[in-house]
Automatic annotation (TrEMBL):
Residues 1-13 have a biased composition (Gly residues). This is Siderophore ferric iron reductase. InterPro entries: FCR-like, FhuF_C. Residues 1-21 are annotated as: Disordered. Residues 197-217 form the Ferric siderophore reductase C-terminal domain. One of its GO terms (molecular function) is 2 iron, 2 sulfur cluster binding.
Length: 235
């Protein structure tokens, strides 16, 4: 189990609590599952795969709760099990009184939690894997921007503009300015938005892998072509 995320409280945002619980056994298990499944993919893929799996649920829950509800849950007692297949999907929260307040207050509270959670996970993950700080920050920023796209009311131009405005606020609150952004263009006179990733996840190194449609190793025209192809409606 990966449990009690960020427990220990206190401390300024962005700094891991000094007595946060040790998730070493669960993180080592996560590393072993993915390392044994795709040994050919190498250390960069393994490190970023584990990092993304650790942080995605806290990020999505925090961002979507802040924008689409009147509360922000306390994630200090969040439990994320590591199943046998290594996919971290699902969590439990202790019964608690969530934070309530206006949007700005909710965003600030959620960002403070995320800074502590990600600092804790980064410290623990780097005990067993080498993870570039820049790559970790960029993937965290990408995750926030994907969560904002999920939080839109629709995929129209106004909703895309909303996501871009909120992204600026979140990047500032999380200290991640410049680590990710959005690409926008028009397809058949319809607005398109996609995450402008700054770091490669190395999925293409897997025996069953390929370059992601948003991979920064691809030039802009190729990314747009692949994203458009993914969105095409079969005849």
């Amino acid at each position: 189990m990966i449990c009690d995320i960020g427990r220990g409280g206190g401390g300024p945002p962005g700094r891991a609590p000094p007595r946060a619980p040790d998730n070493a056994q669960a993180i080592a298990r996560l590393r072993d599952v993915w390392g044994q499944r795709y040994p050919e993919a190498g250390p960069h893929y393994l490190a970023l795969r584990c990092w993304g799996l650790l942080i995605w649920q806290p990020v999505y829950l925090s961002v979507i709760a802040a924008h689409r509800s009147a509360i922000v849950p306390d994630l200090s007692g969040m439990i994320q099990p590591v199943p046998d297949d290594g996919f971290i999907i699902g969590y439990t929260l202790e019964r608690h009184e969530p934070l309530r307040g206006g949007l700005r207050h909710r965003m600030q509270a959620a960002a403070g939690q995320l800074r502590n959670i990600c600092a804790t996970f980064y410290r623990e993950l780097t005990q067993v894997l080498r993870v570039s700080p820049r790559a970790a920050e960029s993937m965290q920023a990408d995750c926030v921007l994907y969560a904002l796209l999920a939080a839109r009311h629709d995929d129209g131009a106004a909703a895309n503009d909303w996501a871009q405005r909120q992204a600026i606020e979140w990047m500032d609150l999380l200290g991640l300015r410049g680590r990710s952004g959005y690409l926008t263009w028009r397809r058949a006179d319809l607005p398109v938005i996609a995450v402008d990733r700054q770091v490669c996840c190395h999925y293409f190194r897997r025996r069953d892998g390929d370059y992601c449609s948003t991979c920064p190793k691809l030039d802009l025209a190729e990314r747009m072509t692949r994203i458009d192809a993914e969105s095409a409606v079969p005849a």
